[in-house]
Amino acid sequence: MISCLFCGKAKAEVTHLIMGLTEGVAICDECVGQALILLASKGWVPPTIRIGVSVDLAEIGRLKEAVDKLLSVVNRDAHAIEGVTEAYEIAWAFVSSKGP
Ligand SMILES: [Zn+2]
User: Which of 1, 3, 12, 66 is the most buried (most CB within 10 A)?
Assistant: First the structure.
């Protein structure tokens, strides 16, 4: 069964699984999204996206900054969201390790 080469999720676990040109290689929509956020945070500007929806990746980069600030505030006194924070950090470290 084909799964995402980055996160290992199977087709049934994600919304989209994009097949690569090499047999058995695929990436899921979640990993593509994380990669785009990472690239935007590094100042990458995408070519025109022709899907009928305007996507401002600089805006996504600012959204990440906002999320980071929110987490730093919440982290001060909330053990309840430790799991969420940990999941975010693990996900971000994973994506960062795959970056350019
Ligand atoms: Zn994935």
Answer: 3
